[in-house]
């Protein structure tokens, strides 16, 4: 009887050891495969950024198509918006790569753009929802932990360009940290093709809302950013150009198109020192840094550096850590977000 118990103990022990070794093996292979995939890129021009292959530490938390990313540099948190059936719509990571939390909210259908506002004082997370269901065509404000605070637009109803807060697949929002003023590009394939500026209390200040190829006209405006020199930068995706406006008056200042003959700009952000405009190009799988012009001069665009990603990565929207200068890229095709760090702080 004792011998039989001893044999049973040995059998169970061996089974446990085998199971542990199998889990370790599969986990190692998973991370190795992920790391190898991430390393498949090269830089054209000046090497300003390098890929951090260790971020995040557990990439298996990405379970859907990653559409947007936003960084809270004060809290050290990265928010990642993803789409898919039965997947959390927002994932939270630390800037060091630790997984923190998932938002299992039912109030988001198809997140597109995501932005952290008032990071230094009272942070909130804004998300544009381009869904066609009962929660879509809206822009939503959440607490840092995912509590719904406010909804702009009428949920489930696509609106016309005649009504300021009636959206049709709003693409992205940018909230100015100092003033609280809100900039919105509305029209990720919908009927609207608008750039709106709202006051902190949601009053219309100015708007450009005409579809076309002319000055101040848009075709699928996809991303918006504001620099420190009262200039608004808009990725005019359908027209393969970036348009620039005065943030106070709304006056048109210039346009860049020569850098986007092969593919349209999908995302626009500025590095913390305002030296470079960071642009994602989805179809050519590139993230480029363009030289930001001095005050009062728009001129022609000039690409300083390009990160050429692997085929079918599909970089969609980007954001930067305003403290470290780290660049985060949301990648639809690869179903992940990646972190790129400055080669030297002096460059960024």
TrEMBL record:
Ranges annotated as spanning the membrane: 7-28
Keywords, alphabetical: Glycoprotein, Membrane, Repeat, Signal, Transmembrane, Transmembrane helix
The keyword Protein transport is annotated on this UniProt entry: no
Xref: InterPro entries: 6-blade_b-propeller_TolB-like (IPR011042), NHL_repeat (IPR001258)
NHL repeat windows: 209-248
Pfam families: NHL
PANTHER family tied to this protein: PEPTIDYL-GLYCINE ALPHA-AMIDATING MONOOXYGENASE (PTHR10680)
Protein's recorded name: NHL repeat-containing protein 3
Originating organism: Pygocentrus nattereri (Red-bellied piranha)
């Amino acid at each position: 009887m004792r011998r039989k118990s001893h044999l049973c103990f040995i059998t169970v022990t061996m089974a446990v050891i085998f199971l542990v070794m199998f889990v370790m093996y599969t986990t190692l292979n998973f991370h190795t495969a992920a790391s190898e995939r991430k390393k498949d890129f090269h830089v054209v021009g000046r090497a300003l950024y390098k890929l951090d292959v260790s971020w995040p530490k557990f990439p298996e938390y990405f379970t859907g198509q990653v559409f947007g990313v936003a960084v809270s540099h004060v809290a050290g948190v990265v928010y990642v918006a993803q789409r898919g059936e039965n997947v959390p719509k927002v994932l939270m990571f630390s800037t060091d790569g630790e997984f923190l939390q998932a938002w299992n909210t039912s109030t988001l259908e198809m997140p597109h753009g995501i932005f952290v506002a008032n990071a230094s004082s009272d942070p909130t997370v804004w998300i544009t929802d381009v869904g066609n269901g009962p929660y879509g065509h809206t822009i939503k404000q959440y607490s840092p932990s995912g509590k719904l605070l406010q909804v702009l637009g009428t949920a489930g109803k696509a609106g016309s360009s005649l009504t300021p807060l009636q959206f049709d697949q709003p693409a992205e929002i940018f909230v100015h940290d100092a003033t609280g003023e809100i900039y919105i590009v509305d029209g990720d394939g919908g009927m609207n093709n608008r750039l709106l500026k709202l006051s902190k209390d949601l009053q219309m200040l100015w708007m450009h809302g005409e579809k076309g190829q002319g000055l101040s006209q848009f075709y699928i405006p996809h991303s918006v950013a504001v620099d420190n020199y009262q200039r608004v930068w808009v990725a005019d995706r359908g027209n393969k150009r970036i348009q620039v406006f005065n943030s106070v008056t709304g006056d048109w200042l210039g346009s860049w198109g020569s850098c986007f003959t092969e593919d349209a700009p999908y995302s626009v952000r500025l590095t913390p020192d305002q030296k470079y405009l960071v642009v994602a190009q989805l179809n050519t799988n590139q993230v480029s840094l363009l030289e930001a012009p001095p005050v009062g001069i728009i001129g022609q665009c000039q690409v300083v550096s390009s990160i050429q990603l692997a085929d079918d990565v599909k970089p969609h929207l980007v954001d930067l850590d305003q403290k470290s200068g780290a660049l985060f890229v949301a990648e639809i095709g690869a179903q992940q977000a990646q972190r790129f760090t400055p080669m030297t702080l002096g460059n960024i």
